[in-house]
């Protein structure tokens, strides 16, 4: 009998883009409006608000002032600055099913808003960010992501405020969904299945002692929520084999 062990890393979901919404999410669990703590004006902001669920990559700048013409920005806020940060990302401590943020720019600029999960693009849309937009919330609903990246093409400065966090999701480790042993007179193979995420690339390794691993394939493209791989190098001498699947997406 052939015993198989599959050790894998990682996890998986249609997006509803929030493009120039008046109020962002209908329901949210928390909002980061940057009044949670006071920072010296124009300080670089990276992980200072991580206890509230967000960090900023590579960085933005903390501003203590607003303007009466800024409809959705009030009190402390963040801005791009010198050196210019483009693109920049809002990263969440946990994966979320929804999140939105206020973005304004003067002058207006074309922009691309991208949702990412584990650094991989999940969904994106093109828009215009402007101080003159009456509706200034941007984001996503009904999709799993842990980052919003903002890329813009105009020579401008952006302001960021009121990050709304929707329902969060705890990503569970992958597990075996099925194992199929194929045996005939001239063929022996094993097909292993694991939970996967769209857009990911996996490597598959094999071992007979759980110590030394041999790479079988380092370019197994995700097939969606479940991916499989066939090991056709199985012989009658194999009493047990151990498999390892690794997410190697850059």
Structural commentary:
- Strands 2, 3, 4, 5, 6, 7, 8, 9, 10, 11, 12 and 13 form a twelve-stranded antiparallel β-sheet that branches. Strands 1-19-16-17 form a four-stranded mixed β-sheet, with no helix packed on it. A three-stranded antiparallel β-sheet has the order 14-15-18, with no helix packed on it.
- The protein has two domains: 16-169, Jelly Rolls (Sandwich), CATH 2.60.120; 174-247, Beta Barrel (Elongation Factor Tu (Ef-tu), domain 3).
- It starts with a strand and ends with a strand.
- The model is unreliable at 1-13 (pLDDT under 50).
- It is built from no helices and 19 strands.
- By secondary structure, it is mainly beta.
- Helices cover 0% and strands 55% of the residues.
- The chain is elongated, with a radius of gyration of 23 Å.
Topology:
Layout: E1 3-8, E2 16-21, E3 30-32, E4 44-45, E5 54-57, E6 60-63, E7 77-79, E8 88-106, E9 109-117, E10 120-129, E11 137-152, E12 157-165, E13 168-169, E14 176-183, E15 188-195, E16 201-207, E17 214-221, E18 226-231, E19 240-247
Parallel strand pairs: 1-19
Antiparallel strand pairs: 2-11, 3-12, 4-6, 5-8, 6-7, 7-12, 8-11, 8-12, 8-13, 9-10, 9-11, 14-15, 15-18, 16-17, 16-19
Please describe the structure with a list of short key phrases separated by commas or semicolons.
mainly beta, Jelly Rolls, Elongation Factor Tu (Ef-tu), domain 3, twelve-stranded antiparallel sheet, disordered N terminus
CA-atom Rg in angstroms: 23 Å
Shape: elongated
Structurally, the number of domains stands at: 2
Strand content: over 45%
The CATH class designation of the largest domain is Mainly Beta
- Helix/sheet category: mainly beta
* Helix percentage: under 10%
Provide the succession of SSEs. Answer: EEEEEEEEEEEEEEEEEEE
Nearest-integer average pLDDT: 87
For the record, give the distance between the C-alpha atoms at the N and C termini, rounded to a whole number.
Answer: 37 Å
Biggest β-sheet description: 12 strands, antiparallel
Low-pLDDT segments, ≥5 res: 1-13
Number of helical runs? Answer: 0
* CATH-defined architecture of the largest domain: Sandwich
Q: If you consult CATH, what is the topology of the largest domain?
A: Jelly Rolls
Using DSSP, what is the number of strands?
19
